[in-house]
Amino acid sequence: MTTTKHTDARALTYSRTTATATRVLRQLGHDPRTIALLVLIPCVMLFLLRYVFDGSPHVFDSIGASLLGIFPLITMFLVTSIATLRERTSGTLERLLAMPLGKGDLIAGYALAFGTLAIIQSALATGLAVWFLDLDVIGSPWLLLIVALLDALLGTALGLFVSAFASSEYQAVQFMPAVIFPQLLLCGLFTPRPDMHPALEAISNVLPMSYAVDGMNEVLLHPDMTAVFVRDVAIVAGCALLVLTLGAATLKRRTT
Amino acid sequence: MMNYASAEPPPRPPAPAIHAQALTVTRGPRTVLRDLDFAVPHGQITGLLGPSGCGKSTLMRAVVGTQAKATGTLNVLGHPAGHATLRSRIGYVTQAPSVYDDLTVRQNLAYFAAILDPGRTAADRRHENVTRAIADVDLTTHADALAGNLSGGQRSRVSLAVALLGTPELLVLDEPTVGLDPVLRRELWTLFHTIAAERGATLLISSHVMDEAERCHRLLLMREGEILADDTPEALRTRTHSETVEAAFLHLVDKAKATATTTPTTAAHQEETTR
Q1: Which of residues 72-91 of A touch B (CB under 8 A)?
Q2: Kind and range of the H or E element at B219?
Q3: What is the pTM of this model?
Q4: Three-point CA angle A65, A67, A70, nearest 5°
Q5: Helix (H) or strand (E) segment spanning residue A66
Q6: Which of A2, A64, A133, B37 is deepest in the core (most CB within 10 A)?
Q7: Min CA distance, A103 vs chain B (Å)?
């Protein structure tokens, strides 16, 4: 092998990113139970919800649409935080960072792999809700899918970031209630955000999940892309990028 | 088996592969490496020996560039340790096998190969490299087994195979033969010598098994973060009037303890002058 052309230390290269994404998907491929749980649980929950609100279908419409945005965020958060924690504790991260791999390659690789999984998960859940559970969406289901995908990316970003602060799987799992539950309570799923105590409404204004749920509800109620929808999508995407950048900063080539 | 200690070392280029001056590493409140000066020559196998906890792994991490809080000068292949261009020129194996347990042996190697030598045009070359690396560590029959299902020794060989991908100019191996049976250990040492002789690669190999010391061209003996001796195995045995490197090491440790008022480094220097 000639060693002439792979001394480039760019932060992001296409082939190293796709190689990383392929590797992450192959790891998941050896774990079919995790894939089955990831894909099926949101569908089962939506099915359950549909018949819990059997007598009031409009409640199912609103909560169902919100949940289509929340599921990918939660599942991708959990999967990513555990996967990157393993990478940190198994020594493979140290090995990779001693190789010509950009930090951006690693993060983009993870985002690509889990994003693919999130598309499958969201497509199934959205399809089930819209065509079989009679979720009454006025806008295009494709827009629902876009928001779901961005939510999954946000979940991946948050999971990657918090994994830096966990030293064991026990701690990583506990970050779920710490990071996700407050957003779940304040995102407008249980009560519209303007009805909350003003202090809580102010907090909910700076939490990204609020905009994920808002975006879903915009699609639910309006036939076209509204300005509010575009704003919501931009905020969720911006947050995901910001947290991914923060996550990259937690990957250190030199450790003590 | 050939006597490696007496093997002719290849001609040495002027600059050493690794050159340390006043290298000090602290971890928390503890000084793990204390003011080290040493040089590792090109194209040879240098053994890094000493009891566990003496700082061997920290020294190796400093050379690879993953150790924070390293002060002093440390040049590796003509660049400061940790320089970005060194990342594809150094193969590094940590003490604990660092591979993905939920991938097969071949999938593990294929991924690391794609990081070292990326791009679709390199696919054939990568495939060859992966197959060769698996054969080098004698895992061809286990190529499609999940790394997590292998025995401890087999997993550490997968980890070693990753470092053998491509053609690193410097191989830093942290206890690569620990927990392996004698036959395999001999095979790996033959492989290390082939790599040094045929590719002109430099190898820095740590061990706490003293009989492996006899197979190195040069030895760095370490104790408590300091270097007790930096010499060839024969010279060590001759100057301490010992039969084995192990006896030579114990002799040096006793001497260092006896002169406890001075530092062990000074003791080593005195040893150097009485030679």
Answers
A1: 90-91
A2: strand B218-223
A3: 0.84
A4: 125
A5: helix A57-89
A6: A64
A7: 12
Q: Which of B64, B92, B100 sits opposite A27 (nearest CB)?
A: B100
Pairing between β-strand B79-80 and β-strand B70-76 as defined by DSSP bridges? antiparallel
Which residue in the set B66, B97, B107 is minimally distant from A253, CB to CB? B66
Q: How many CB atoms lie within 10 A of CB B260?
A: 9
B168 φψ region: left (φ > 0), alpha (ψ -120 to 50), beta (else): beta
Quote the CA–CA distance of B269 and B261 in Å, as a whole number.
Answer: 15
Query: Of chain B residues 2-41, which have a CB less than 8 A from chain A?
Result: 27-28
If one counts every other C-beta atom within 10 angstroms of the C-beta of residue A179, the result is 18
pLDDT single digits (tens) A46-60:
999 999 998 888 888
Give this complex's ipTM: 0.86
* A 1-40 residues with CB < 8 A to B: 1, 3, 6-7, 9, 13, 15-16, 19-20, 22-23, 26-27, 30-31
* DSSP notation for B107-140: HHHHHHHHHHS-SGGGHHHHHHHHHHHHHHTT-G
Instruction: Please write the tens of the pLDDT for every residue from B61-120.
Output: 999 998 989 999 999 999 999 898 898 899 999 888 999 999 999 999 999 999 998 888
Which residues share a beta bridge with B23? B36
Alpha helix stretches (DSSP H) within B165-244: 182-199, 233-240
Beta strands at B45-49 and B218-223: parallel, antiparallel or unpaired: parallel
- Contact with chain A for residue B129, Cβ under 8 A: yes
Among A3, A100, A255, beta carbon nearest to B115: A100
In terms of DSSP bridges, do strands B218-223 and B226-231 run parallel, antiparallel, or are they unpaired? antiparallel
Does residue B165 register a pLDDT over 60? Answer: yes
